[in-house]
Amino acid sequence: MFRLALFISFIFSTFLGAQSSLKYPALLWRISGNGLKKDSYLYGTMHVSNRVAYHLSDQFFDAIKSVDVVGLETNPAEWLVNMELTGELSRASGVSLYNPYGGNFYKNVFGMRFPDKQVYKSLLSFDPEIINGLLYRHSNSQENFEENTYIDLFIFQAAAKLNKKIVSLEDFVKAEIQSKLASIPDAEFYPDDAKGDDYGSYGGNGGKIEDAYRDGNLDAVDSLTKLFETKNMQQYLLHNRNVFFVQRIDSILKSGSALFSGVGAAHLPGSKGVIEMLRRLNYKVEPITPRQTKKAVKEQDAIDQILKPVSFEKNYAADSLYSIQVPGKLTPIMNYDNIKYYINADMVNGNFYNVARLKTNSTLNNYTTLKMTNMLDSLFFENIPGKIISKKDIENNGIKGFDIINKTRRGDLQRYHIFITDLEIILFKLGGKGEFVNSSAGKQFFSSIKFEPKFASTIVYQPPTKGFKVKVPSEHSYSRNDYVGVAGLVEDLSAYDKKEGNFFGVKHAIFNDFYYLEEDSFELNRLASYALQNFKFTKDIKTELKKEQGFPCMYLTASNTNGKKFCGKIFIKGVHYYLVYSISDGKVDLSNDFFKSFELTDFNYLNEIKEIKDNDLHFTTKDETSNTPSSRFNEQFAKAYAQVKDSLKTKKIKADDFDYVSQTKNYYSPSSHEYVEIFYEKYNDYDYRNKKELIEKVKKNLGEVLTMNIRTISQKEENGVLTYEFYMKDTATVRAIKAKVFVKGGTVYQVKAPCDTVYGLKGWAAEFYDSFKLKDTVIGKDLFKNKFKELLSDLVSADTAVQRKALFSLSNSVSLEKEYLEDYLQFIQSEKINKLNTEAKAQLFVSGGVFESEKMIPVFSKLYAQYADSAYLQICLLKGLAFYKNKNAFKTVGELLIKETPLVGDESVVGNVFKVMQDSLELCNTLFPSVLAITRNEEYHTPVYKLLSLLVKKKIVTGQQIALSKADILQDANAELKRYNATSQGKGKTNSYGGNNPNLEEMISMVKENLETLTTNSIVKNTKYKDVLNLNEQPLLVNFAHILMPFYKTDEKAKQLIDKVAKIKNDQIMMPMFVLLKKNSITLNDTLANYYAKNPNTRTYFYSELERDNLTSVFPKEYASELQLVESVLKAYGLVNTYSAYDSDKQKDSLIFHKEIKASNKYEKGTVYIFKTPKNKLGLNKWSVAFVPTLNDNKLNTDVIVLRSNELYNETLTEKEIENEILDEFSGIYRGRIVSNRSNYYDYE
User: Fold this and answer.
1) Same-fold call for 313-451 versus 458-603
2) Which among 100-114, 543-557, 1150-1164 has the top mean pLDDT?
3) Dihedral angle over CA of 284, 286, 291, 297, nearest 10
């Protein structure tokens, strides 16, 4: 017994010794001295519910009970309000920027959303994650090791239940700003001293942090923070906020109140921590050694059991459909598409109140309320969390529903009231700890639900922002999507006349397009077609183009299989699109008061339009200054960010200002959702542009999209600012785009605003556009001044910063202009160039070709001899001459190569010179035969012979020209054949046609790779299979065969060599050799032609090779059809992962011909070919689609345009609907706004 006591004593003294050696050995600290009459306390928290944070001591509870005020970082009771003020609430909902009408604008924007069963399931089971974040912070994987809530909130709840005054130690908005600054990578503020991704962060070192917290070892917490957190994280999340905390703590203490303050444990230790800062204010701050007994556990349980009464407030639905009482106000957290979600969190007692509204439009989908009720009832068992305790039918003012009580896995009760109306489902839910739902507060919540009676009447409805007004039944709902972006549905008004059974609606969408003007008739037809499809009205369709209220309009009527009638009008007004519609039993037509009353009006701007300054792009203008909480917060953050950047600017950051930067920025009116686009360019400080050429280029870029016409409205130059105004218009639309171009210093601005030609630019857009003005600040250097001499001078500057700036500019940004020629030639011949490094010289030499001047040829020749000791710079001089694309320049390249051949030991470096010359083959004639002499050098061997092969094929070089070199060529060709035979021994098995399968696989793989560079998973405009073939390089042996072919009939050795190459069992060689021999009328075994034509993977490749040499008569007629060639192309496109022709699972990637359809669009007519694969394991087909234009001479066309390759369509579509979607996509393939809209599916094969 004595030994045990001694051992315990030893352990305890060892622990105390270890703790006493620490500077910060505890989580709880006593604050005294400095005139305080009563002790106050400081406590380090963790923001989790994990039990590691709940090692609460007896002194912890004594401290809270003894004080007057409890201070936390921020007051949890105010969190929801503050989150709304900063926009954090919308971000936390996870849907603030989601646009359900994205993708294909025409197809989706005027849709009627009918929720599927999965949406109803989610409605029943879903609790917004923000509730867990506010109240519990539980982790499903850790739920057996957690307390009811996290420690910060427990302190708040304890204080509230003990009737303590609760305060925030910092301003929530300021804290959010610091948090956002903390998340910025160090590299943005400290480019020379940033660890970047090397930081581990708390996330990866949570175990170490937990161990330190569990031991109350704040020294370790401090060390880990410094080790693993970024500079920005430490500065803004910890140190700056510590200043706020200490100022507030000091203020409270000086007021005479005893304070218990709880902040994150990492805020306490260190020289910039709260403890030391309080000590510097003359407070005595000392650790309290924790003592934990059963008393602490009882205290915690007792506080948990207290239920603090709350005051209920009456809340009304926005459309006054119902009223309800909750503790405070219901806060909207989700408002998009067809669902709205509201929450109220009782932070003191740990309970939550939810209201959700799901717009079902069930009456339009032939679902009665009874049918909806039964469908929901069938989903309860699987989708109500935990176990259902009870379920009752209820009714509230004629609206029927369910009352459900369930118990979760944690043992907490929840209760639902779910009501079903003709148009929506309204769900009321209460959740909390234990059996709170049975408390008087829980009963009050549900008993307060009151549905307000609707009176049959008609009202004139106009949104707060105006834009339109219309007469509708009083039973209506209106929703607005404030996060729509530049395109999508903004407003959705629906009304229901229950007595007559008529449904009315107005949908308002926008499309702010700065690059394309679509034809009005095309858009109206497309919108009408898709609207009727979306509403499922596909019978008796009638449409008529009209003009109403001065705007393009389409009337449309249709019926559905249930005998319902759809009537509608679609209007286009600038960037605005309106669908006005009714659905009835036939009682409503376009002469109804509803349609007659619809009127397009000017917008009402909810916020003040006043002058604003854009400090990023340096301009002023008038803008609708959105007064939303989120915009106010963003403005405050922008100011804070700018202040930080200004205070931290280093010499290097300032130096970065010299280079080219560009930025596109959109401004918009939150009331009208009209946008103005600003494209800003700041040119490199050494850049130069010819004034006339620059404006012509800008003008061309503005109007280059399809058929848009552009005219200059005005131009002027004053106060150093050059201003042009342009007007872009298309003949088939009433829309237009106005644009202004400003040039000042080194900057160019393009300001674009879409508008209509009926009323012109109006309202916010007009004020923004007309008042746009550049600030007096001059950014960059004068763009119209030639600064090349300055660049050359700076390249050899003694100031390393200046030199680095010039070197960077030369390598990355500045292009050489023809005006620089004389200065350029003078510099590269001067002694100054010797001060440059090799790469800078190389850059100057290679770029020299842009001057296109004979003057450079003798200079480059002289320099070539001068740099005899640098093969790399000699290559760069040759490349510069090659870029000149001049006969004398090419001749000089050949002469220099022969005179002194630069040996760089790298074929690719040499090959780059010859590749530059390949697109000007006619200029290469003078190189041969003399340049053949350098093929003895290994790096020149292949590039020279490949170039010669091309010249012989094009008959630019004749056999007579190279006759004297024939023996050397034959020697090299035979050597290459020996090398090939030696390396190919034992590779692959021979097929029945004499071909080698693995090599055919390589050939097709090469074609596939080239295809993949030209296509993506979206519609491909004008991707032609023939274009791909030009990318394929033939083997060197084939090049030799082409070179020696002129001697085939006169030289036995040449004939033998070519015959040997033709017999090589490698398809990459056999196919081009077959074509070569046929072209030269040499007898062959035609089974090869049948082999390549029969294989769908090589069919079109082979046909195209023959076509280029007018040999299509050789192609077997049984495979010479457009359909067979298209199948071949689509097979090649489908080779993504494996070569399927030899795959054991041939069925997997096989293509089944589905249909061919004659089709046309704005520019072409021809045939669309549709293929599909067998169904996969999910029962889905993959679809491949190609288009072949019709040739005037009815010849077989191999210009196959691939539209789809092995892609999935929505599984709910019928094959006929898929065909229609394919044709619809094709009809818009050349239109700027058509965006493919395929659902993202995953193939689990």
Assistant:
1) yes
2) 543-557
3) 60
Give the CATH architecture of domain 313-451: 3-Layer(aba) Sandwich (3.40)
Decide yes or no: CATH 3.40.1000.10 for domain 458-603.
yes
Query: Among 594, 600, 556, 554, which Cα is nearest to 574's?
Result: 600
Nearest 10 degrees: Cα torsion 798, 802, 804, 808: -140
User: What percent of the chain is helix, strand and coil (3-state, nearest 5)?
Assistant: 45, 25, 35
Burial of 1093 (0-12, 13-18, 19+ CB in 10 A): buried
Please answer whether residues 767 and 624 qualify as being in contact, where contact means their C-beta atoms are separated by less than 8 angstroms: no
Tokens 């301009």 found at:
619
CB 496 within 8 A of CB 473: yes
Q: Which residue has the tokens 């100057």?
A: 844
| Amino acid in the structure at residue 263 | V
Q: How many residues does the chain have?
A: 1245
Given CATH 3.40.50, say whether it is the number of domain 609-647+667-774: no
Beta strand pairing call for 1152-1160 and 1165-1172: antiparallel
Q: Which residues pair with 546 in a beta bridge?
A: 553
Domain parsing of the chain, residue ranges: 21-305, 313-451, 458-603, 609-647+667-774, 1125-1227
Residue range 1005-1054, pLDDT digits in tens:
554 444 443 333 333 333 444 444 444 578 999 999 999 999 999 999 99
Report pLDDT digits (tens) over 18-64. Answer: 445 789 999 999 999 999 999 999 999 876 544 444 468 889 999 99
Per-position DSSP letters for 888-900, written without gaps between them = HHHHHHHHHHHHS
> Exposed, middle or buried: residue 768 (CB in 10 Å: 0-12, 13-18, 19+)?
buried
What are the φ and ψ backbone dihedral angles of 197, each rounded to 5 degrees?
A: -80, 0
Cross-strand pairs, 622: 611
CA of residue 705 relative to chain centroid, distance: 23
Residue carrying structure tokens 């003399």: 930
Considering the entire predicted model, what is its pTM? 0.78
Model confidence at 218: pLDDT above 90: no
Q: Is residue 619 within 8 Å of 772, Cβ to Cβ? A: yes
